[in-house]
Amino acid sequence: MLKALAGGLFLGLAPGRKPAIKVATLAALIGLWFLLTTVTGAVTGGRFPSPAEFWTSLVQINTRGYAGAGLVSHALHSVKLVAMGFLVAIATGVPLGLWMGWSRKVEALVNPVFLIIRPIPPLAWIPLAILWLGLGDAAKIMVIWFSAFVPSVINAFTGVRNIDRPVIEAARMLGTPRWRLISEVIAPAASPMIFTGLRLSLQASWTTLVAAELVGALVGVGFVLNMAQQDIYPGMILVGMLTVGLLGWGTTVLLGMAERRALAWNIAARD
């Protein structure tokens, strides 16, 4: 698994690209960063940290800690919240989307409510989540769940509606039981769109997590960003930002591995 995670996915680029190009791109960005902040001083430390300031902040949070914990503890807590909210969103959003796509009656019943709540930004749920569930992790999981719920419903619904009707009618003519029709025809045919929704849901989960942890959190990467902002600590802000980016990238890679395993039949058909 670790080999697959690392192979060909460095910096999120396609496996076929030459590693030298990826390394050169990263080196160019670091060189530009060093040039603007350290050599020329065009960007001052109060606006954006230099590489040395970033490294000092990284060493501090990993050795002495910051905002009450080390970087690993903050990162693990954030990953736990994202995983819980994301998994609950999958467990509720995907079946609902499949059901709405399968049944016109269910769509007519649920869609008016869904159209009302869909435009509401996930962050707008934070006050209600705090009122209902307090300042603990449950409120943050609720907000993450909502942000991931909407894309999973939409894409599961679209996946079902995009299935060619003759395929479904042929399965019915063969006397396929309903449960087999759903599990062996509907769900596999809709799975490419479902995974598209899962990628969008995962991205939304990380975006929402940081905002949710800015309020009432005692640990987490978002809490690190909040404390660093109050301390006017650009180096630690960049540490928090890059941590979120790396965690989001890593979880996206894992989801991509799961997608390739689950949709191996679809990839083989395209090839």
Helix/strand layout:
Blueprint: H1 2-6, H2 19-39, H3 51-63, H4 71-102, H5 104-117, H6 126-133, H7 137-161, H8 165-173, H9 178-213, H10 221-230, H11 234-262, H12 264-270
Helix pairs in contact: 3-11, 4-5, 4-7, 4-9, 4-10, 6-7, 7-9, 9-10, 9-11, 10-11
Could you characterize what this model shows?
This protein is an all-alpha fold and 271 residues long. The chain has a single domain (51-270), classed as MetI-like (MetI-like fold, Orthogonal Bundle). The protein contains twelve helices and no strands. It has helices spanning 2-6, 19-39, 51-63, 71-102, 104-117, 126-133, 137-161, 165-173, 178-213, 221-230, 234-262, 264-270. α4 (71-102) crosses α5 (104-117), α7 runs antiparallel to α9 and α10 (221-230) runs antiparallel to α11. It is elongated, with a radius of gyration of 22 Å.
Would you kindly provide a brief summary of this structure?
This protein has helices at residues 2-6, 19-39, 51-63, 71-102, 104-117, 126-133, 137-161, 165-173, 178-213, 221-230, 234-262, 264-270. It is mainly alpha-helical.
Tag the structure with descriptive keywords:
disordered N terminus, 12 helices, 77% helix, MetI-like fold, 271 residues, mainly alpha
CA-atom Rg in angstroms = 22 Å
Which percent range describes the beta-strand content?
under 5%
Distance between the termini: 23 Å
The CATH class name reads: Mainly Alpha
> What is the tally of beta strands?
0
Helix content: over 70%
- Architecture, according to CATH? Orthogonal Bundle
Mean pLDDT: 84
CATH homologous superfamily caption:
MetI-like
Low-pLDDT ranges: 1-15
Largest sheet: none
What's the overall geometry? Answer: elongated
Tell me the structural class: mainly alpha
